[in-house]
Amino acid sequence: MSDEPQTIVLKTREKWELFLEGLVTVGLLLLLNFAVVILIDQAIHSNQGLVDGIYQIKRAVTIGPWHLWSWQRIFFILLIIFDAIVVYWRLIRRYHQMQMRHIIEELHFIANGHLDHRVNLKVSGYLNQVIDSINALVDSTVNSMIEERKIEASKDELITNVSHDIRTPLTSIMGYLGLIENGQYENEDDLLRYIHIAFEKTKQMKSLVEDLFEFTKVQQTHTQLEVTTFDLVSMLEQLTADFELEAQKHHILIEVDVTQRPIMMSADAGKLVRVFSNLIVNALKYGDEATKITLSAHQENNDVVISVANDGRQIPQEDLENIFERFYRVEGSRSAETGGSGLGLAIAQSIVKLHGGEIYATSTEQETAFNTILPLNRHQQEEN
């Protein structure tokens, strides 16, 4: 379809409608004019003073052989102008009705399933606004349908991925418990080893279910935030203390680097702890060859920028673009050798969006950083 609006071509029936509309209007106006002229003529001739007054006016404006025309001629000219305006108004009104009829036909065509079609008619005035509104509504409907299909596909993908990640440890649990059930172990050491493996796989399943529950909860649009006021720097320092032993196991130094303290902000502290915990866990598990994790924060106008950075191996650009997708792993494997559910970064992103902020990752040969931008006052942002 051409982008250039198409001029509406009237059908033969519509042209006859316009002709009859004009004919009837002219006929009614002639009858009205005739009646008005008779009434005014009778009114003037029944009043001699009015007749004399008109005669005196004619004499007063006489210039040589030229004098004012008779009042009938002046009145006729005024009536012709009035009639022309009325006829034009009636015809243009009917023409706009016909244009609206064509627009409705186009709308019915779209409603019958041709959602790729748009009203592309050349009109003017309010009808042009009507067409713009219709096209905008259709675009919005189509986008909503596309988004709904994406959500359905996303749900299917979520179920598939969860089923896969649960089935793997569940198969191991059933296998080792089956060996124990059938007495297929040689000594107590084998028995304890089987029980330990089954227990570890159970913890892996529990972690996945908890992450899935948290992800589903924060994805809901009606999720409420429990906003409190707290010192962000103190929160980051507490997190480094909590992860210090885990970092030592990986031979990684974890520290807080801030130049401004305190940084007071109003937000859901519990959910933000989950965000930064997930980012730290991600750095510990996937920061290959990293020796240090640095948590930094600084204020920029009404926002605060928090960075969780490590000096590990650079993440390829194509992975950075998808890193916040659920179940996405940089190593490109669906195996859970690292013990993660693949939902940590997706949960972090959802919580940040709930706060009206944004999160993104950057990676160079020197540093990989997950940067979070959050409003300092969530209550004030909601009011604005």
Summary of the model, kept short:
This protein has 384 residues and is an alpha/beta fold.
* Low-confidence runs of at least 5 consecutive residues: 332-338
- Rg (C-alpha, Å): 40 Å
Mean pLDDT: 81
Strand content: 5-15%
User: Which fold name is given in CATH as the topology of the largest domain?
Assistant: Heat Shock Protein 90
Shape: elongated
Pfam families: HATPase_c, HisKA
Transmembrane segments: 18-40, 74-92
GO molecular function, one term: phosphorelay sensor kinase activity
Catalytic activity: ATP + protein L-histidine = ADP + protein N-phospho-L-histidine
3D structure, described in words:
This protein has 384 residues and is an alpha/beta fold. It folds into three domains: 118 residues, no CATH class; 62 residues, Helix Hairpins, CATH 1.10.287.130; 156 residues, Heat Shock Protein 90 (2-Layer Sandwich), CATH 3.30.565. Helices cover 60% and strands 12% of the residues. The strands form three sheets. Strands 4-6-7-9-8 form a five-stranded mixed beta sheet. A two-stranded parallel sheet has the order 1-2. It has a two-stranded antiparallel ribbon with strand order 3-5. It is elongated, with a radius of gyration of 40 Å. The chain starts with 5 loop residues before the first strand and ends with a helix. About 2% of the residues have low confidence. Keywords: ATP-binding, Cell membrane, Kinase, Membrane, Nucleotide-binding, Phosphoprotein, Transferase, Transmembrane, Transmembrane helix, Two-component regulatory system. InterPro entries: HATPase_C_sf (IPR036890), HATPase_dom (IPR003594), His_kinase_dom (IPR005467), HisK_dim/P_dom (IPR003661), HisK_dim/P_sf (IPR036097), HssS/ArlS-like (IPR050398), Sig_transdc_His_kin-like_C (IPR004358). It is found in: Cell membrane. It catalyses: ATP + protein L-histidine = ADP + protein N-phospho-L-histidine.
